[in-house]
Every structure is written in structure tokens, then in C-alpha cells.
Amino acid sequence: MSFPLLRNINQISPILIIYILLTFIASSITNAPVHSIAFCYILILFFFLNNIKLLRKRNYQIIYTILFAVTNSLLIYQATNKNLPLGGVDWWNFNNQAMALLNESHNLVSFLLNENNLFSKLVAIIYLIFGPNTEQIYFFIFLTSLLVFNYIYKTAYLLLNNNNKASLAALIWSIWPSEIIHSITFLREMPIQLFFIMSLYYFISFINKRNILFFFLAIAFSIFTAMMHSGMIGVVVSYLFIGVSILGNKRSSMFSPVRITIFIAVVMVLVNSPIGEAMTLKFQNIDSIDDVIDKKQRVEGNTAYITSTPQNSMDLLLQTPYRLLMFALAPLPWQVYSFGTLLSWMLDGLLRIVVVWKLFEFFKLFKPNSENEHVYKYLFILIVIFTYLIFSWGTQNYGTAIRHRLKIFPMEIILIFPYLEMVKSRMSFKNKLKGGGA
Known about the structure:
mainly alpha
């Protein structure tokens, strides 16, 4: 009886020592509340070990462990200094919003009904529990990045049924430079990515099993993303369209007038509900195309790629292709004018060329083999089109574009690496069969 107990102690002791050291070092250097950091590191180490178990190959586990150690060191640095490239300064706004929430909300009802976005409310809850300290938020953000890794793996495995490809997708995401920065920065991109990839996982589960519970889970998590940033409402709309299209009578076309009418009715009810108001905070002052034009009159930021503002609806329409291209690819080489913008181009701009090209390649080559794959293709296309359109209209500098396009990047990383390789392998196999038959 004693030997298994001794083995368990030998396994737990190193983890316990690491936990105590990380908590002590992090709280001492950053001056964050020790009880908050202690709470974070319990969960951080738990999810790290859980992720390690997903990566069955030894070399993958070693890479991920090294990456975890490096990123954790950068986390402590960023929480203290807040000056890493691409880190942004919006954390100050979220901190102010959270503090205002605490000061203005006298009860739970007033807190929930406050018009601030969901991310600021979550920060306020952390402040309420652990005290108003900004440095601790960096550790909570890092925690969410470990969960994003987990759900990228699970989603890729659900699509491909291949451990190696699922592991590769999660690892590539975790070493992506802008993802590393945003996993250790007081910004809302990582929590949004978490809720998005969770929603995608459950929606794909819904497509496969037609279990209505998965549908509602996917809708709920996608609503959370829109409550953090209204631009993510495109994901909610995509899920609702696909959900209405595949439920009920299978003989009916996805684009039948009846289904489209139901879809429009559901969207109208949702948008005009209290939840809809929370999802459309950034759109509440927009009642017409003129309001959109008025908002676009203000060109801000030293990385702006829009220099002429639309004067009418035709200008807005004509600017859309350019806005889409810039949102998807900026910064481009000719937009580099300083060391800071050079870093942005090297850490993100160069890689965006690969992402956009691979996305184009995926949608061009992907020939669905089953009914579910047809639904997947419509789903992925809708999410990319809706989110890119919405954010391209609301973004005019590449500093902001870099952050916004990360929001659905967990899906893109699955499509452009393991899923694309599966598509190419399938096409190669079919070509060989044709050649053999000849």
C-alpha cells in the first residue's frame, strides 16, 4: 500500500515545488496579489499538464514544455513592464472600465445591466475577488491561452480524427508570434479566441451528431464573443444560418425561402432582445448608412492604411475591397516606416501573406466528400466573410487589424495547415487512382 503512495508523492513533489517557486517569483516581481497568482498557477499548471498529455509524441511534448517556460518568463516581464511589441495600450481602457463598474454598480442587477462589454465585466469580477490590481490580469489571460490550445486540439481532432495533425495545429498556433504576445497581454483577444474556438468545437459537434444541446452551447459561447466585441456577431449569425438550414426537413434546400425567412426572424428577435443589445454595443449609434460614413470620417492611429474617408454610400462600397485586403494583409512592406512597424511586419505581416494564401488555397481545393463536409465548407466561408467584412469596415489601421483578425485565427490555423494537408492528400490519392485506371 505504501509504494503507490510513495510513487504519487515523488510525482507530485516536483510539481508542487515548481508551483511554489512560480507563485513566489511572479508575485514578488510583479507586485500582484499573492493569493491571485497562487490561484492562477494552480489552474495554469493543471491545464499545462493536461495539454502535455494530448501531445503523444515526445518531441512535441519537449517543444511545448520549452515554449511554456519561455512564454511564462515573458508573461512575468510583460506584467511588470507592459512594453512588448504588439502588446498595445488598450489595457488602460479596460482597467478604467472595470474600476468604473465596481464604483457605479451597487448590486448584482446594476452590474449585469451596465453597458460595458463582457471583458470589462470579467476584469471587474477579478478585481472584486482579488483586489484592483492590473498585473494579475496578465496571468488570467495566460490561463485562457492554455484553454485555447486545448480546444484547438479538440476541434482539429474532431474534424480530422488524427492525433498528430491535431497536435500540430495546436503547436503551430502556440508558436505564432502574435499569439504568444496576446497570450501574455492585458487585452481581450485571447478570451475572445477561447469563446470562439469553444463555440466552433460545439457547433461542429452539433453538425456531426445533430444534438440540439451542442447547438445551444455553440450559440451561447459565440454570444459571449460578441458581448466582448460586437464585431464577432458575424459568428453568431453564421451559426444561426447553418443551424436553421440543417435542422428539420432534410429534403428542403439550405437556401429555401422558408428557411431564410425563419433565419431572418430568429436574428431579428435575438438582435432586439437584451442579449442582442449587449452584443451590438459598438453598433448602437448606427441607424443608417450615413452613420457608418460619419464614423469613418475619423482616421486615427500612426499605422493608418485608410487616408481618404468615404463621402457617400458609393464611396463606402468602393472602399470595401481595399479595406478587406488591408484588413487581411496589413502591414505590407511599404507601410514600414519605423523600427516598431518593422517588428509588426516581421512578427505578423509576413506570416499574414501565408495565412491568406493558404485560406484561398483551402477554399479552392476543398471538395466536400459528404453532407457534413458541405456544411463545414459553408460554415467556414460564412465565418471568414462575415468577420472580415465587419472588422474591415470598423478598422482603419494595421495596429488594430492585427488584433482583430486574431479573433478567428484558431479556426484559420486548423484550415490552413492540417485540414489543407488532408485535402491535398485526398486529391493526390484521387489523381493516382485516375492514373492507375488509365
